[in-house]
Every structure is written in structure tokens, then in C-alpha cells.
Write a structure and sequence with these properties.
This protein is 41% helix and 14% strand. With 301 residues, it is an alpha/beta fold. Helix 9 links the parallel strand 7 and strand 8. Helix 1 packs parallel to helix 3, helix 1 runs parallel beside helix 11 and helix 7 crosses helix 8. The longest helix is centred in the middle third of the chain and has 19 residues.
């Protein structure tokens, strides 16, 4: 294969982002530095923010330290949470959309329509949401090394794989990738509106096709029973959109795929509401410990 290593960073809220940075720092501590080794990074939702962090040129240990540090807040600043629909209503609507959908494309279009409909209630928070996401990025510029940020066109349901050649600002791409319908506004880019790439797939690992080695960090992977609150609760997955199907397809193409999902300690640290910012520090600590243990599994042919 022409390319060697792809790193895929899945969605998973605040906890998932912190866990991914922790795992990457733990792997680096053990001698597997994916901030250097990855020829491509694919990020979806919270993983899009993690992708920008990994591609920033900041050492893995420093990325972890930034997660563990209290957020910097300007004097007198009083953050206000952007408006959103009640979470229970959002998840009820998601389950109804999934139950009615006849295909993955149908589900994606219906979720986009839900996002556009919700804008009448929560659209006023779009600018604030973008500013919040932009503040989390180490740099406003796209990295020189290849990175893909995944979102969905809200009107067509089609996937958008943004990169530095897309003519889209990094902050807009990441904000779109994190725009969960009903909870945050759709994102307007060049006349189109976009929603969270995790509506298609939490990981979108199939976008790493063609790479000899693929490492997938999947904060929501390996879950059984009731999905965690706060991220795509109960959203139906059609064949090809689930992680197992995507990994199987990559392996059939000849890729060596390593999937890392939260272990028991990491799941406990991440809790049931992965959008809760209080989960970030424990999730990062647990991810770091897990990353050191997983290093022997991450090998490149």
C-alpha cells in the first residue's frame, strides 16, 4: 500500500476527547508516538478536536498536560451555555428517526432535517458555539500533514471529508463535525449547512482506506447495554456504518487494524454522560494508563 499509518479518532464528547489524548500520551510514553508516526489523522466529532490537537506539533505529554490543567478564563468572563433542546427530547427524536429510516442515507438525511428544524430554536447560539470550539484548537490553521475532519451535509445527508485543500477554515470544519442535531446549531459553510459526522459513523474508519496500518481510538466502541447519555443514544447503525463492519472491510483490503476501546477503568472514569466536562480529567488519567498498557498491541508492518 502507498501509505503506512492512519490514526482514526472517534467521537465521544468531552470525556472521549480527553481519553483519546490520554491514550495517545500513554502510547508515546511507552515508545509509540502517533503524533509523529501517523501519516493521516481522521477525526469525527470530539475526535475532530483531538485530531487538531494531535496534528498541532505539540508533544503528546504537553497535550495531556493541557487537558489536566484548569481551563483558562478571562477575568470577569461568565460563560453561558448555548441554547439547546432538552436532551431527553433530542434522544427520543433520534430513536424515532432511526426506527423509521430504511437505509443509512435515509437516516442521515432525516438527521440533517432534524438539525435544520432545530435551528429555529437554537440557531442563535451558532456564533458562540464556533467561538467555543475555536478556543479549544491549538492553532486556527490547518496542519501541513494530512488530516480529515468528518461532517455531514444537513440537506443531502452526504459525507463531507474536510481537509486543508477544502477551502474551509479549520474552526468551521471542527465546529461542523461536532454539531449534534438538536443540541447545537447546524454550521453554515460556503452556502451549505452541516451536522455532526458521527451521525454517519462514530469513527468513519473507512476513510482510512489504503493505509497499511490503521489505529482506531473508539471512545464509544465496545459498549454493551444502554449507550451512554450525551452522544447518539440509541441511534441506529446500518451495515457499513458500524465499527466492526468498517474494520472488517479495511482488513479485507489488506490493512493491519488495531482498535482501542475504553477498558473497565476508562469506562468508569468516562461515566454515563460523556458531555459532562467534569469527566475530562479522570478520563485523561485513565486513558494515559491504558495507553501505556496498549503499546505492545500497536505495531506497524
Amino acid at each position: 500500500m502507498a501509505h503506512n499509518v492512519a490514526l482514526v479518532l472517534g467521537g465521544g464528547g468531552a470525556a472521549g476527547n480527553a481519553w483519546e489524548i490520554g491514550v495517545i500520551a500513554g502510547l508515546a510514553e511507552a515508545g509509540v508516538d502517533l503524533t509523529q508516526a501517523a501519516d493521516l489523522v481522521v477525526g469525527t466529532s470530539a475526535g475532530a478536536t483531538a485530531a487538531a490537537q494531535v496534528r498541532s506539533g505539540i508533544p503528546a505529554a504537553a497535550l495531556l498536560a493541557s487537558v489536566l490543567s484548569p481551563p483558562i478564563q478571562a477575568a470577569g468572563q461568565n460563560p453561558v451555555r448555548p441554547p439547546s433542546l432538552p436532551m431527553a427530547i433530542v434522544f427520543e427524536r433520534m430513536r424515532a428517526i432511526g426506527a423509521a429510516a430504511t437505509s443509512a442515507a435515509d437516516l442521515q438525511r432525516a438527521m440533517g432535517a432534524f438539525g435544520l428544524e432545530s435551528d429555529s430554536t437554537i440557531g442563535s447560539g451558532a456564533a458562540q458555539r464556533r467561538a467555543t470550539v475555536a478556543a479549544r484548537l491549538p492553532s486556527p490553521q490547518w496542519p501541513d500533514r494530512p488530516m480529515i475532519v468528518v461532517a455531514l451535509d444537513a440537506q443531502t445527508g452526504e459525507v463531507a471529508a474536510f481537509d486543508r485543500d477544502s477551502g474551509v477554515e479549520l474552526a468551521d470544519a471542527v465546529t461542523a463535525s461536532c454539531a449534534l442535531p438538536g443540541l447545537v446549531p447546524t454550521v453554515s459553510i460556503n452556502g451549505s449547512r452541516y451536522i455532526d459526522g458521527g451521525v454517519r459513523s462514530n469513527e468513519n474508519a473507512d476513510l482510512a482506506s489504503g493505509y497499511a496500518n490503521v489505529v482506531v481510538l473508539a471512545p464509544l466502541g465496545g459498549r454493551s447495554g444502554t449507550p451512554p447519555e450525551g452522544q447518539f443514544e440509541g441511534l441506529r447503525r446500518f451495515p457499513g456504518a458500524d465499527l466492526d463492519s468498517q474494520v472488517e472491510a479495511l482488513r479485507k483490503q489488506g490493512s493491519h487494524v488495531t482498535v482501542i476501546t475504553p477498558d473497565a477503568d476508562s469506562r468508569a472514569a468516562m461515566g454515563m454522560n460523556q458531555m459532562d466536562s467534569s469527566t475530562r480529567v479522570p478520563s485523561a488519567h485513565a486513558g494515559f494508563a491504558q495507553g501505556k498498557q496498549e503499546a505492545t498491541r500497536v505495531t506497524f508492518g
